[in-house]
Amino acid sequence: MKPYYQDDYVTIYHGDCREILPELAAERNLCSLGILDPPYDEWGNLYEGVYAPLQLVVDDANLLVFTKQPFDIPLLDKIKDKVIHEFIWCFSNGGAWVSPHRPLVSFQKIYWCASNNHTYFNPRTGGGYSLHTRAFQRGTKVFGGYRELGRRFTPSVDGTWIRDCLYFDKPQKGNIAEKPEGLLFLLIRCFSKATDTILDPFLGSGTTAYCAKRLNRKCIGIEIEEKYCEIAANRCRQSVMTLKV
């Protein structure tokens, strides 16, 4: 396969990931983190053609699967044996319309999947604490005859601990549905190490590749729309590794 774009960090393929992924699956342990964000209403048609071969590609690695209501429950039923944890990505802008019989959707789910409990996970986000955060001694816990001395909290130099609710508004630019860079920076930092390889088979405008490159990770992206491939390639040409890993 000839890449649409390639540099020292990023490789982008133009085409249908259902055709490209089986070829990539020949290389075991190709990546350490897979990010899967397909068109939600197509999950029923994409599951066998995307999720199954992707599991081969990211063998013994992390997989972050984006979804939203009402597609989350059917998907969870298919992948529940691989789900380790569920994150909620909340946004206060751009509520998604699903149906005249349902409320607007203001959050999406991210299923953290892995084949075992020993895949890489760094709970520290690198993000700063509130200006009011100070070291302190937690209060003593007392339940009936049980008594436990509270632990001491000290802010970490590696930033705050990741939470199961992540608050990032959607980007307000252009006509392309993008994920916020802040969300991708956080997820990539917490679920992969520096110099690891990230795989995104629905690359879109290239946010995953852009963020991976800036965090000193490599990225393999697949995108079916050529115009989005070009947008992603242009972003990667302008991206340099500048952020603390």
Structural class: alpha/beta
| Widest sheet, order of strands | 1-2-13-12-3-4-6-5-11
How large, in whole angstroms, is the Cα Rg?
19 Å
**Broad shape:** globular
Walkthrough of the structure:
The chain has six helices and 13 strands. The mean pLDDT is 87. It has helices spanning 17-24, 43-57, 72-79, 181-191, 207-214, 226-238, and strands at 5-6, 10-14, 33-36, 62-67, 83-90, 107-113, 136-137, 141-143, 146-148, 152-153, 165-167, 197-200, 218-223. Strand 1 and strand 2 (10-14) form a beta hairpin. The two termini are 31 Å apart. The radius of gyration is 19 Å and the shape is globular. The protein has a nine-stranded mixed beta sheet with strand order 1-2-13-12-3-4-6-5-11, sandwiched between helices. It has a two-stranded antiparallel sheet with strand order 7-10. It is of the alpha/beta class and 245 residues long.
